[in-house]
Amino acid sequence: MTLKQLAQRVPEFFRGRLTDCHTRLEALTASIQELNQINGLLIDRIQERITALVGLLRHLSSTDPIYQPNGALQHFPSGGRAISQG
After folding, report:
1. Domain annotation covers residue 37
2. How far is CA 84 from CA 31, 44, 56, 73, 81, in A?
3. What is the residue range of 33's domain?
4. Which is the most buried residue in 9, 24, 40, 62, by most CB within 10 A?
């Protein structure tokens, strides 16, 4: 039995209170659904950024050789490279 159905079966004194509760619960449910949708969008965007950052970190820690400004090929046997000297 729903709250709305219950409100139709109780004495008049309680009917108004139950109807008000039903109305407030419906509004609260709608607000929660809207907030959940917003949170879902935020989570999707955060996941995209995390994925991009992980890709950047993988690229930066790559063991693939790179060319230096003088044209020499530099290998990175340790699998890492310094991003900052200071």
Report:
1. yes
2. 47, 31, 15, 20, 9
3. 3-56
4. 62
DSSP output for 32-62? HHHHHHHHHHHHHHHHHHHHHHHHHHHHHT-
Q: Could you tell me the pTM of the whole model?
A: 0.57
**Alpha carbon distance 32, 38 (integer Å):** 10
Nearest C-alpha neighbor of 25 from the set 2, 58, 48, 52: 2
Number of domains the chain is built from: 1
**Residue 82 pLDDT class (50, 70, 90 cuts):** low
Q: At residue 27, what is the residue type?
A: A
- What's the gap between Cα 48 and its chain centre? 9
